[in-house]
């Protein structure tokens, strides 16, 4: 007797993607709404379409999907955009997230969740401050009028935000929550160690794969090389008890940045008689790829990430228990409102700094509004909450709150952005003020 479970799952996923995209185009709504709703209905009412126990194989499914999701996001960042908005992305992805987690943990004084300790607050807000680029792109890609600079900030923030949230969760929040106490100095040093070594390993891998890609000229080979790099970076980071996600992001972004730099030089036809040692090491006269082949790589990597995100939606559907969501409705609403207000304040701080620091581009009211409601939660929040040990007494609270916040953020934030762009007659509005 043959078992065709993998084939059936693949047919189900691809069919759902095709159907959701077709309906979203006709209805002019974000496809992520239909994907999330469709995955829940299929998983719970058509079990024959998903003949694999996702709960039993949760870890394997998640580990398979993570590199594909983050690879596609990282490849969207361009070297020129990083130069222009590097400090803005750093603020949004690191400083703002850290401040947001601290602000969330400070709510411990108000007994927002009386069941959990201060360490639990840090872990819970780290989980629920992580954004999801796939959901955001699904919403924003449907509409015109979003300035390129805002898209860059959103994409850059979603990547760095996730890395910061992971470090805060695994190396500060989770140990503190499970042990009941933590040495602040040791936790800070451990977080810095993880950040530094993950970045260094990512840079080393990024350069290695960039150099490797100079030896062949085939778009399929280049695409698969990025896939290999993503999985290798993630596995290597996790193997050394660092942040696999940060290692992956740094590796892909650095490879892509060096490639972009080479292409810029080639397009400007800059001839240099003398090359520095670093330039010779980079084989600057040999291109790793071309802009045309990169377009193919972008498109295919985005599709891989999209499919992986749909798989995560099925995992989310497995975790959805309507009775528990209703039981924890007050906690879910409290967390959703708190994270929304904290994010709005973080974006307002970004706007304020933008007026004071020349390195950060200021945003207007509309830019602040879009950045605030682009903070949809998704795959990473589900992954992190699943990593809480089964014997933790309040794991049910964490899971229910996180699932509820993910669902609310996608539908509420997505609807707000959809309504904003649908009923605004102006297109291609300038969201960044002149310096």
UniProtKB/TrEMBL annotation:
Keyword field: Cell membrane, Ion transport, Membrane, Sodium, Sodium transport, Transmembrane, Transmembrane helix, Transport
Keyword Hydrolase: no
Cross-referenced InterPro entries: Cation/H_exchanger_CPA1, Cation/H_exchanger_TM
Membrane-spanning segments: 6-25, 32-52, 58-77, 89-110, 163-182, 194-213, 240-259, 301-320, 332-353, 365-388, 400-421
Coiled coil regions, renumbered to chain: none
Cell location: Cell membrane
Cation/H+ exchanger transmembrane domain residues: 16-417
Keyword Chaperone in annotation: no
Membrane topology type: Multi-pass membrane protein
One Gene Ontology cellular component: plasma membrane
Biological process annotations from GO: regulation of intracellular pH; sodium ion import across plasma membrane
GO MF annotations, alphabetized: potassium:proton antiporter activity; sodium:proton antiporter activity
Gene3D superfamilies associated with the record: 6.10.140.1330
Stated name of the protein: Sodium/hydrogen exchanger
Annotated source species: Nitratifractor salsuginis (strain DSM 16511 / JCM 12458 / E9I37-1)
